[in-house]
């Protein structure tokens, strides 16, 4: 039906065929059809010329624009609504989440609360997804308490969302509790729990959950095995990971895909078995994708294999020219080996191709409010206090043996400038903010959009001991539980 839509005039002629066609439901369906086909101007013109609009008309525009990634225009439409229902709020929240705007999603949810709308389970599960991505534990706990206060049944949808939220907010203990309390578990619920223990480096738990699924006569799927193999990769369980890959189709009837081979390449690479990882790539029954090759390049950086990394990096820079992360990895490999000329060559190539790397960003939730930090940024209201405290903190760490690791600073600048460069990394700013604003001995939880660097990891371990704090850092790859100068990753990350 939608594919046959023409211009607005055609749609209006269709609606003019009978007086009954002026029914608002028909207009809403026509608008929805245009939006689903990507004809935004046609949908907008039809919407603006409607003789009568109801809340459903506005909801159709908000949801349709959100689906198309036009989130700012969706928000402008949402703000113009004189009347809203639960679908209005849900559409705006889902739109923000789909666009990766998690803070904005929570702001809309908080506004929804002020307007005295009672959220139902589908809105709650969306809000929990935002909390999971931001590490907003307080907000997530509020949702959980709301579910319990209002006697909302903990079905597979809510149970899965809560398990995922608690795991990604660093409370794997609460994730386990909710998992056990969820009666009607679906495969997605088990996958959320397996994925949760995986990013916390608890491979044995992930494998045990897979075995338990078998006992419960539940069939795992491809996502299940991505979680289990990821857990093995984060713990260095090479033999176990290889056994699981070989048993996927034979025992479970799941044919390994490129993502599963990617996990094995990552597992072997992290463990320093680069030649075996390369052999896996050669023997794959499908073409390796950029993610698989990227995992091997990351392993070259970890183990300082410059020759292999250079060869692989050059291939990736041609296959994935617009991905700034590939350039950063190869630059780091060169920088770690002291090859400044090659670093500059990579930077020159990035400039010529107009490629930029993602800016490091760390967030920390305090009292239900999410605070965001970027390297060298002074926009936070407490910036002056944070930077002063950070200077004192670094000097104190130096008395405890901390030596700044400047080997991966890519700029050709003086050593003192390099130290200042890494001093203001976003995770250090977030931790400093947490130390200033939280009670003694309380846990500090930080979420970073990129992989935490070696210097910040070393500093965070020392901070946990010197300031007697448990610090939980979630980076792009996994969780780091830092306490008493040690990390749960055992420096295998």
Features:
6% strand; six-stranded mixed β-sheet; 6 strands; mainly alpha; disordered N terminus; 64% helix; 25 helices
Structure description:
With 493 residues, the chain is mainly alpha-helical. The protein has 25 helices and 6 strands. The protein has a domain of 127 residues. The chain has a 6-stranded mixed sheet with strand order 2-1-3-4-5-6, covered by helices on one side. Strand 5 and strand 6 form a beta hairpin. The longest helix has 17 residues. The relative contact order is 0.05. This is DYW domain-containing protein.
Q: How many helix segments?
A: 25
Computed over alpha carbons, the radius of gyration is 25 Å
Helix content: 55-70%
Strand order of the largest sheet: 2-1-3-4-5-6
Which helices and strands appear, and what pairs or packs with what?
Elements: H1 8-16, H2 24-36, H3 40-48, H4 55-67, H5 71-80, H6 86-98, H7 102-114, H8 121-134, H9 137-149, H10 156-168, H11 172-181, H12 187-199, H13 203-215, H14 222-235, H15 238-252, H16 258-270, H17 274-283, H18 290-303, H19 306-319, H20 324-336, H21 340-353, E1 361-366, E2 369-374, H22 383-399, H23 415-423, H24 426-437, E3 444-448, H25 454-466, E4 471-474, E5 479-483, E6 486-487
Parallel strand pairs: 3-4
Antiparallel strand pairs: 1-2, 1-3, 4-5, 5-6
Helix pairs in contact: 2-3, 2-4, 3-4, 4-5, 4-6, 5-6, 6-7, 6-8, 7-8, 8-9, 8-10, 10-11, 10-12, 11-12, 12-13, 12-14, 13-14, 14-15, 14-16, 15-16, 16-17, 16-18, 17-18, 18-19, 18-20, 19-20, 20-21, 22-24, 22-25
Domain DYW: 401-493
PPR repeats: 23-57, 85-119, 155-185, 186-220
GO biological process, one term: RNA modification
